Amino acid sequence: MLGVESFTNRQPGELARMAAKKVVTERSDEDAYDVVAVGAHPDDVEIACGGTLAALSDLGRKVAIVDLTDGEPTPLSPSPEVRLAEAQRAAEVLGVDRIVLDLPNRRLFDDFDARCLLATVFRKLRPKVVIGFGGKTPLASPDHWQAMQITDAAVFYSRLTKWDEHFEGLPVHTVQRQLYFRLAFEPDSLAEYPGHFVQDITATLDRKLEAIACYETQFPPNKRHVLERVRAAAILTGTAAGVGAGEAFVSPRPIATTDLVTSLFP
Ligand SMILES: [Zn+2]
Fold first, then answer.
1. Distance in Å, CA 94 to ligand 1 centroid
2. Angle formed by the axes of helices 80-94 and 205-213, to 10°?
3. 224 C-alpha to center of ligand 1: Å?
4. Is residue 6 part of a domain?
5. What global pTM score does this model have?
6. Which tops the pLDDT comparison, 1 or 100?
7. Residue 192 burial by CB count (10 A; 0-12/13-18/19+): exposed, middle or buried?
8. What is the CATH number of the domain that holds 40?
9. How many angstroms separate the alpha carbon of residue 44 from the centre of ligand 1?
């Protein structure tokens, strides 16, 4: 069943703005996404884990970014359309698909409609792994904390039976793994969770920075120092793990291995 927004014919990097009523496409498992990363605003995901998503894309994984809001208004962006164009270019740099939802920037709240909207996207994209915010971000947007709670709930709602009427009639989907990302300037660890690990992004750090730089309205010349700080944070995170650059993730559940040697020396 194809609806208003079909992903089947989408090209990598293609951007679609979707309202809740437009998410109506069923997908076969061949079309399922390996990873969906959820941010509150376009640029959150790039700053948190753009290097990882680029590396996954290079490996042939099917990856999408979902932004809960369009991130507008912001002080230096002339219009939402400009920000969306920046977001599309950034997704193209990383080699991933992107969906920008129409929840309200600056007043994003964890409520039932927001949970159902994102769960509907999960039922449509059918990701194996969902990555999203892992806690509060003091001094930054409170939308981030709300995004974490919406994402947690949507992962759960996605698999609930006998409730399809809230998800455009789409079948249930169980997300097998959920991970939390850390914004580049935040501490790498979340003390309350057991599983921390680092993705080596030595080969994709430059693309991560290139993707962030696509947001010219957010990082004009007088804020370009942010890019150097993102680079420095990635090098510090990677150095701690013995690689050139890295991005930290937290698993709320322990991660098991069946071959310790291969896991430690992939
Ligand atoms: Zn943000």
1. 18
2. 170
3. 17
4. no
5. 0.89
6. 100
7. exposed
8. 3.40.50.10320
9. 5
